[in-house]
Structures are given as C-alpha cells and as structure tokens.
Amino acid sequence: MDFSLLLPLFLLVLFIPIFLSGRKQRKQMAEMQEMQRQLEEGDVVVTTSGLRGVVTDASYEDTVDLEIADGVVTTWVRAAVREKVTTDAVDAADEADAPAAEAPATGAPSLTKDETPRS
Q1: Which positions ≥6 away from 78 have C-beta within 8 Å?
Q2: Which CATH architecture has domain 36-100?
Q3: Per residue of the chain (119 residues), what is the pLDDT tens digit?
Q4: Which of 65, 63, 67, 58 minimizes the C-alpha distance to 39?
Q5: What CA–CA distance (Å, rounded) separates 62 from 110?
Q6: Residue 85, burial from CB neighbour count under 10 angstroms (0-12, 13-18, 19+)
Q7: pTM: predicted TM-score of the whole model, two decimal places
C-alpha cells in the first residue's frame, strides 16, 4: 500500500474541522461587533462580567454609559457588552422577581395573631 497518498488525505481530514470552526468563530465575532455598534439609549444589556444595565448614552465610539441602579451610571467599553436583552426576557425576569419579593425575608415561620414567639 502506498502511504504517500494516505498522508495528504489524513492531513486534509484533520484541517477541515479546524478551518470550519475558525469560520464559525469569525462569524460570531462579527455579529457581536455589529450588535455592539448598534447599541442605542434604552437598550438593556449584559456585560461580560454579568452586570445588567440600561444604556443611557451610546454617542461615543468606544464606550457606552450604563445605568446599573437608579441614579448610578457607569462607563463601559463597548467590547464589554456581551448581549442585548430582549424585552420579552426583561418582562419574564421582572415576573420571576415578583413572587420572591413577597416571600418572607427570613427562614422564621410566620406567626398568627394568637401565637407568641417562644424564647
């Protein structure tokens, strides 16, 4: 059997997946850069560190200002924005937080009017 023909075929089989995964990564990077370029005021975003905020100023080329709490505005590099949160996801997160806010803050059992706490 002639191994001189087998070696190029073997190398081809190894490099095709590497080539295809490189193309996929470049495509994802281009999509992310386009999303970062198109940020507008009012967009809800998540940064690479997991911080969620609302874009308050997107007029600069390299940075965006995010409001992370009422009256707290921070400046971030656009590349730090990982994803834009859709309004459906924001509504679902607000609904998920609502029942948690009604639950008791401590693990203590609730008392009725007739019960008194024991020491």
Answers
A1: 36, 37, 39, 62, 63, 64
A2: Roll (2.30)
A3: 567 788 888 888 888 888 888 888 999 999 999 999 999 999 999 999 999 999 999 999 899 999 999 999 999 999 999 999 987 655 666 666 665 545 555 555 555 556 555 65
A4: 58
A5: 52
A6: middle
A7: 0.57
